Amino acid sequence: MTVRHSRDDQGDSRDLAINPVFSREPLQVPRYALPRAEMDPDTAYQIVHDELMLDGNARQNLATFVSTWAEPQARRLMDQCAAKNMIDKDEYPQTAEVETRCVHMLARLWHAEDPRQAVGCSTTGSSEAAMLGGLALKRRWQHRRRAEGKPADRPNLVMGINVQICWEKFADYFEVEPRYVPMEGDRYHLTPEQAVELCDENTIGVVAVLGSTFDGSYEPVAAIAAALDDLQERTGLDIPVHVDGASGGMIAPFLDPDLEWDFRLPRVASINTSGHKYGLVMPGVGWALWRDKKALPDDLVFHVNYLGGDMPTFALNFSRPGAQVVAQYYNFLRLGFEGYRRVQQTCRDVATRLAAEIARLGPFELITDGSEIPVFAFRMSEGTDHFSVFDVSAALRESGWLVPAYTFPKNRTDLAVLRIVVRNGFSHDLADLLLADLRRVLPRLDKQNEPHRTADDAGGFAHGAETKNPRSPGRD
């Protein structure tokens, strides 16, 4: 992200004017340069604290998928482990053991055939985990092509245009052609037919999203896998599936146990999820798992000496705190399967009730209802053209609510929606307060003759629903 500094009329940054704190002398503190000397720690704290008061209230942020609440015990553990470096396996062997336990727990949760043989690791978040999954797909494809004496320089990856922006970054950073399936009509994500249509001998894999950031819907992973099975029977092309379960990977196992999307499907080679979304950990931690060692080429794995033994490691980063991994293990112990089920069911109950109440208000039409991941999107109903979703978003922000408004991508850029993410901590009571504020602003908006705000006013306030830059899926 590019940081732009605000400047005064002279084009130079103004110093921060600091009032006396407990009779201390007033200070002038440079905004964009190091101060010349040290200051009292309480003064430094107060300066930073006061500036951060201008941030939004995280609990009212209905745009982000990231957890904004944690139990005091989890926070204490995170504070105790903040100085532990995850990469130092020898110095912090029990933290490394905790990471291994979490991987095995997830492997069982996602029905790995032999959880002891599943391979996985923690990451800084689901974006890094997704890139690791993509790298493994690319390297497996390259090995196979070279073994067959065929060129391995033009890999492509098939996915819906609704994928999170990290997949566009992966394709750009690691030189893979992204083949996006555009939205059409009421189809807002990838379907089996469209996925197979874009596959060829250079396809390293298909990404199926379990919980689209645009509308909260599940993509039909089992049907996509079945279509690829049929493709292999007809053409010999053996194309694996990576499941981006950033959100749904920690929802479906508890609320939709009969839904087949994970390692029960032989074609699913790898899965990523976000521990700091519906894994219920404060940011940032993610997880990447492969069904077995064959799915993760060994030449991508670095082997380090760990207590006289071998500790394989596979990550894009190096040093990072162990705090979030420990907090993930705490949550797994604290909640167990039934606890996670209750938390996620409450989130879904809040989402579906809130969606139904919003639909009853009149000016809105639901795109989804929160019955898959607890996320739903809604648009202006037909005939409501004197105010926009962007007007609604701005009006709710006056009361502290951050509800993003954005347009859908290519072929459905005409569709502008609002999206609400229900997370742990967003209760029925808070949902009622949001509804009350929404009801309060609607009469004022209804008096407008035309919309006052457009997509240009929304800036980058989309949280995962950014527009991609689709490239032609040509074979040349």
From TrEMBL:
Organism this protein belongs to: Streptomyces andamanensis
Organism lineage string: Bacteria, Bacillati, Actinomycetota, Actinomycetes, Kitasatosporales
Gene3D superfamilies registered for this protein in UniProt: 3.90.1150.160, 4.10.280.50, Type I PLP-dependent aspartate aminotransferase-like (Major domain)
Domain of life where this protein originates: Bacteria
GO molecular function: glutamate decarboxylase activity
Descriptive protein name: Glutamate decarboxylase
EC numbers for this chain: 4.1.1.15
Protein's UniProt keywords contain Lyase: yes
Family that this chain belongs to: Belongs to the group II decarboxylase family.
PANTHER family associated with the record: GLUTAMATE DECARBOXYLASE
Keywords: Decarboxylase, Lyase, Pyridoxal phosphate
Pfam families: Pyridoxal_deC
Residue stretches of biased makeup (Basic and acidic residues): 447-456, 465-476
Catalysed reactions, semicolon-separated: L-glutamate + H(+) = 4-aminobutanoate + CO2
